[in-house]
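Appendix B, record 7
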Amino acid sequence: MVQLAVATPLSEPIEDGLRISFQYHAPTVGDFHIGLAAVIEELDGTKSYWALAHPPGAPDFHHADCFALTLPAIGGS
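Structure tokens (predicted):
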């Protein structure tokens, strides 16, 4: 597992939610697995944990099961 440098994400309110966008430099060899996750804290302090996939048990965004989005390498098929 390698962490990539990612610029601060941009957030934009949209009609039914929030759009988040970011830029990154994809590897040129091999598939690229991404773990998209967020911790949302409501005004009353309630927290919820969101990800494309969760392992069993307590939230652990570093667990391999969380890396559920696969993108092909640049120039890959």
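Remarks on this record: The longest strand covers residues 10-14. The radius of gyration is 15 Å.
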